Automatic annotation (TrEMBL):
<dbReference type="GO" id="GO:0047617">
    <property type="term" value="F:fatty acyl-CoA hydrolase activity"/>
</dbReference>
<dbReference type="InterPro" id="IPR006684">
    <property type="entry name" value="YbgC/YbaW"/>
</dbReference>
<dbReference type="Pfam" id="PF13279">
    <property type="entry name" value="4HBT_2"/>
</dbReference>
<keyword id="KW-0378">Hydrolase</keyword>
<protein>
    <submittedName>
        <fullName>Acyl-CoA thioester hydrolase</fullName>
    </submittedName>
</protein>
<comment type="similarity">
    <text>Belongs to the 4-hydroxybenzoyl-CoA thioesterase family.</text>
</comment>
<dbReference type="InterPro" id="IPR050563">
    <property type="entry name" value="4-hydroxybenzoyl-CoA_TE"/>
</dbReference>
<dbReference type="InterPro" id="IPR029069">
    <property type="entry name" value="HotDog_dom_sf"/>
</dbReference>
């Protein structure tokens, strides 16, 4: 399955009063990493919406926290298309500080089309499935600063 890596630098504002990364940041990193994953597949969410009326809403997400992260840590989020089902895509995220995994989780996103009467989950096209299921790794070039 396709894999993407992106790096982040932990900023002071990402930490709590104990100086440890505040847990919701993992979900922010998952979201950013997921969007970058789709961009690197030439499936940029904004482009899918504008050209095909396809959106990728979040259906479910989960995270397991294994080790604390601190200010000035550089982390790598490894994102893999773990499952490509008929109308959903499950992205697995693993967060590393160096070689040490600090947490992992997933996002389940729908393949949804905007229609005149609302939105509807539709089958993922074969060409998109092929892109997501191809073994390819895209690595980050430098750390991203959190917004």
């Amino acid at each position: 399955m396709r894999t993407n890596e992106i790096q982040f630098l932990i900023n002071w504002g990402d930490t709590d009063m104990a100086g440890i990364v505040y847990y919701p940041n993992y979900f922010k990193w998952f979201d950013i990493a997921g969007h970058q994953f789709f961009r690197d597949c030439n499936l940029a969410p904004n482009q899918l919406d504008q050209e095909q009326g396809i959106i990728l809403p979040m259906i479910d997400t989960r995270c397991n926290f294994e080790k604390p992260l601190y200010y000035d840590d550089t982390i790598t989020v490894v994102t893999t298309a773990e499952e490509v089902n008929n109308k959903t895509i499950k992205l697995r995220h693993e967060v590393y500080r160096g070689e040490e995994r600090t947490g992992h989780g997933y996002e389940l996103r729908g393949w949804v089309k905007k229609m005149d009467d609302g939105i509807k989950a539709v089958p993922i096209p074969d060409d998109v499935r092929e892109i997501l299921e191809t073994d390819k790794i895209t690595k980050a070039k430098k750390p991203q600063f959190n917004a």
